[in-house]
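Data card: per-record layout.
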Amino acid sequence: MQKYFFHIAYKGNRYHGWQYQPNVISVQEVFETCLSKILKTKITVMGCGRTDAQVHATQFFFHIEVDKSWDFDLLFRLNKLLPPDVAVYEIIPVQEKQHARYDATQRTYDYFIHTYKNPFLSEGSSLYMERDLNLTDMKKGVGLFVGHKDFKAFHKGPTKYKHTLCNVSSAKLFVDKRGNRIRFQVSANRFLSSMVRTMVGTLLEIGRGKFTVAELEKCIETKALPEFITPAYPQGLYLTKVIYSYLDIPARADFSPIMQLAEDDWKLL
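The structure for this 269-residue chain is written out next.
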């Protein structure tokens, strides 16, 4: 058997997430269908994680195992067959024991907000028409995420994990030069379902003055958030970086118009 990692990206608006689900379209299903057609055998892909419905990925990896390699340009054929909102950047031969999901040591998500109605941002950023968000308090809230380990409070729905511990290595809040676009970035070894969107929903309530930083810290410690805090909209969320001990490829940040702002256009708070 031979194993390959596929370095990909996708715009998630019309997909019901990465993971295959019956009766809805997923990114995983699209890849399995296209690869099976090209390679003329049933192909199953294993992703580096899961993304929710309408969430995007500017960097994502999956692996496949095949009996023998192909003798044609699979990268070209696959990109020709895939829909316009999905792309493959590289196909990388890896060792048999290397695993796209279990070997990932760090994942980074970016969440984008625009506070004014803009039809050109509507599918790649979340609209929250907020006039006076308290960014200072929101930054204080962001700082708490690095200081804690258990993120059970940020997992919505029935508990399906053996544990809810996550090692958050970095959490940052940015604002653009005009002050009307916000970017939240967080890196960790693992994330729980809806965790990042719930973090953003919590920060927005802090920014509105309806929730305090002290209340947030207490909720993290007691592992429960108030019911009025809901996950932020999905279309503003991107998986932007996945790192392995043996593989660290620069993300293709130019994939999405929302991320085409130069780094120096974002001011770190």
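Known properties of this structure: Residues 105-246 form a domain with the Alpha-Beta Plaits fold (CATH 3.30.70.660). Residues 195-208 form the longest helix (14 residues).

See the next section for split statistics.
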